[in-house]
Amino acid sequence: MEINQRTLTIRLSEMKDAQQLMDLDAIVWDDYSSPEPLNWTSREDFLRHCQPGSQFVAFVDHKLCGYVGFRYPTLIRSNHHVYEINIAVHPQYQQERIGTRLMETLKEWATEQGIKKLSLRVLSSNEGALKFYEKCGFVREGRLIKEFYVGGRYVDDILMGYFL
């Protein structure tokens, strides 16, 4: 796949991607996009929570520029038709449709795996992310009012879903 004369590669994550994924998390997840910044204490800590193969990663000319992670929301078997997802795109690569391509890849793959629903949570203050998810076909399913206190104010947590 090409993007502005550069090569875009999307694949499942591998062990060798851990450090770049940790670095991207440190850049993307801040008080605006998350209830608190995401800082991994070690590579082992990251790999314990984000095992290889639990994300689709996007590279532009061999540089990690984004990912979409997925997992079952609970250990309850009757909930294993759902993937809870999280997506991050490096600020330098936003507006280049990388997030959209990651989401399209995940939707196709999840359908092949028998998944029926994708769900996510997003802060009400993150209007850009809300618009992106709605553009990708997600619908608002719920709202946890004043769920977090971020940046000196209360912020709602929006629950969204996409049915495959």
Automatic annotation (TrEMBL):
GO terms for molecular function: acyltransferase activity, transferring groups other than amino-acyl groups. InterPro entries: Acyl_CoA_acyltransferase, Bact_Acetyltransf, GNAT_dom. The keyword Acyltransferase applies. Pfam families: Acetyltransf_1. Keywords: Acyltransferase, Transferase. Residues 8-164 form the N-acetyltransferase domain. This is GNAT family acetyltransferase. It comes from Paenibacillus crassostreae.
